[in-house]
Amino acid sequence: MVLFLAGAAFYVNYGIEYNAWVKNLPLIIIDFAICVALFFALRKKEIMEKNRK
Fold this sequence. Notes:
This protein is mostly helical. 85% of the residues lie in helices and 0% in strands. It starts with a helix and ends with a helix.
């Protein structure tokens, strides 16, 4: 989540430039993909812990 927020901060920082989102689109996409992967990993970890009990 911190990485996604960092990517969003870069977007906001360069927001005064025209088409700044195009320059930062790869960063935002990568950050979002990492956050989604971490979400599913934590979800799977919780399910595995629940099954052990």
